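Marked as duplicate of an earlier ticket. Keeping the data here for the record.
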Amino acid sequence: MISRSPTPYVGILAVAGTLALLPLYASSYQLAFAIGLLNFAVLATAWGLFSGPTRYVSLASVVFFGIGSYTVAIVGEVMPWPAVLLVAALIGGAVALVVGLATLRLAGIYFVIFTFGLSEMVRQLVTWYEVNVTLSIGRYIFLDITQTQIFWQLLALLAIVMLGAVALQRSRLGFALRVIGGDETMARHFGLNPTFAKLALFVASSMIMALAGAIMAPRWTYIDPAIAFNITLSFQVVIMALLGGMHRIYGPMLGAILMTFLFEALSNHFPQAFSLMLGLVFIVIVYLLPNGIVGRLEEGLARTRRKPATASAKVGERT
């Protein structure tokens, strides 16, 4: 039975409303850190929105994030800001639609390899275009958008994504996606259309990532392909979602919060070995927390509940 309780929606809006006051009291460093955390939370949650139920591991997050950033660099000064965000989302969605139609029939390691190759291909294409057509390697972004405004926009986007994730989980489409993630053949026997369901969610997830890239772009002032399409971002997003638990709504966001603090510590103390430390963290998560922190907590709670039931059954047998 699908729950209709409004409690999750009210909780998300209450937390978002409380956090909206943070820029009024935070220092410049704290606000910058909060912006980075919100950015990762949006990306990880959007990634989990698609990969959680379908079990497709995508390394193309940076493609759509970079598309959003470059959209701002190209049209940011000639269009109103809401229109810029809309264009970024539409371009990200259009690219995702083309990519999804071509690749979502792949599965397992083939999809992972393709999305990794896609990220590198897009970065090289943009670099070639900038060098040979625009005769420049990067672009400047001069927009009158403050850090506080970036924070509020990312917070609003995260709240919308979380509300959408809750609604999706409670919908028939969400149920269909969970069935598809378990067994696509069985899903077809139930009359579900796996291709359409996966494509719709892939496009929605990609549009969210493009929006995140667009919102973050004014913060950098200058971007180039190495910044906008840095493949490390895709691995960071995957690690965050896996750490928290990619199969649960709040798992990726929890992983994003924890890993943002860890990334900050690694960047400050091991700047030269950041990539190495990132790889080690990934290995530890996969080996020790295959279902994420949320999954491990659920397993612990399940064991705790079984123990009293087992003890009661033994007592009943003795009597």
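See parent ticket for discussion. The mean pLDDT is 83.
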